[in-house]
Amino acid sequence: MDDSAEKDSHVHYVQIDESRCTGCVLCMKACPTKAIRVKDGRVARAEGVCIDCGECVRVCPQGAVKAISTEKLVLDEKSVNVVSASTVIHAQFGEGVLPNDILLALKRMGFDYVHDQSYTNEMFNVAIELYIKEARKSSDSSWPLISPVCPVVVRLIAHRFPSLIKHIPPLVTPREIVAREAKRRLSGKYGCKQDDIHVVHITPCPAKMICIKEPLVQSRSFLDSAIGISHVYWAIRKNLGEIADDDVLHHSGGVGLGWGMSGGEIAGLDMACLAVSGLQETIRYLEKIEMGLLRDMDYVEFRICTEGCLGGPYTVADKYLAKHHLHRLVRMFGVEKRVKYEYVRDLYRQGWFFTDKKMTLPERRASSESISQRIERELKVEKIMERLPQKQCGICGSPDCSTFAEDVVDGRASLGDCVFMKQKVKKRAAGGGAK
Amino acid sequence: MSQLTKRFSILARDFSRAGEVSIQVQGTLKKIGYDQDIIRRASICAYESELNVVMYGEGGHLQLTLGPDEIVLDVVDEGPGIEDIELAMQEGYSTAPAEYQEMGFGAGMGLPNIKRNSDSLEINSAKGKGTHLRIGFKVR
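Structure tokens for the assembled complex are given below, as produced in the milestone run.
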């Protein structure tokens, strides 16, 4: 089976503007799943599996690799419009702008109902604690557990670390809980269908579009669309201002607000936890967990973006300044959770937090070959590797020598694409001619 | 019968790179596409044995042999050898000096962990003669 055909059936948020692409190798080299090649001086996303991590978007100096999202906020007049905002939004406006001001500004923009995730974040913390305590009693649990919150981490695990899937607790993420509950409550209130309640997610993260369209851990997403913080930033800014209304829309303590930064989620857990952020570090620590390390830890918060969601591609504020601001908010609202433990525990026991299906594995690459055939292939790859210069330059159009060797074996590249191999052939030909 | 052999050298007492070989072993196994469970178990054994070479050996190597029916890890070092193999197989028994234990290594779980996660384990070692572990996994 042709992998590129397989890949094309999936939604991806990364788009390449060919007119801006200069054919340099930066995005290809940055891709953790080696899903990018440079062909004829232009970037082509081809083989392998894109996990929508956004590294290519970050490294492209030309702005040729772009993340797509719903760039314009359109409220549907026929629906009840609900917004569910990531708490990262509270770190974007600097000092003096409080969470409630931002939520009020969203309301003035025309949303019927405005929620942020801060309170649900705190509920989720309690649910995770309950889950860990129960899992510690059972002998077949896998440790440490891995946070299900970052969608790219979940996709990375599905593609590259499938043996770690069982480390991800089957709990619904706060962003989905907010949407699910809004739909349930409001459809009851208005006597309409759940589909008539339109929930928009405001997010720092382009990968959210993908998990709305192709969720891995739920049978469907309760969110209807997602829009980047950077796309609504100025509209919010315009609507900040005179606090005429005294609606209280923000209910959490500092813990729920701090989730946007690396370590923010585990700050609300009274357990043995680690927080790891950044793509390379995440891969590193997933490898360690796969080797049986860190078994004494209860829970690891992984975030693919450096410094956590504050480093997401759709943020506006500098991530370190945003972190400074968030720390201040956490101090202001206190490090205690405001949720009631007994209330959350009862909901937990009713199954309120649990996903409705087991995580599905994405389609794997064609695996009709037997182990013997794959060993044969690897032997051929090794043979070619011995002849390659090991410069890892990427000029051939593959990200490194070993991937190039694989591409040659699979018939997607020819040895002559390597400039060093070409030179050798030329020299030999020239030497032969002089004789 | 197709068989692939890869050899990785391991440096003694280089704790900053400890685990690198196991990561390469893990990567190779994934590339061939073995079953998840066998990859997990082989990774754990590779890591534990790599760490033993780092801690106790005077350097050595890990050789990975991949076949359709079996995966074998040969881990060889020229260290002090194991004086009492039976004792070394007991959980919690360790000859690691205090400073290793302070670093979080040498808890006496290495060999027992390898035994538990492999399908076969041969230990050839004698005092002063180095150690050769042959760790096997059956591919179902």
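Residues 118-137 of chain A form the longest helix (20 residues). DSSP finds 16 helices and eleven strands in chain A. Further analysis is deferred to the final report.
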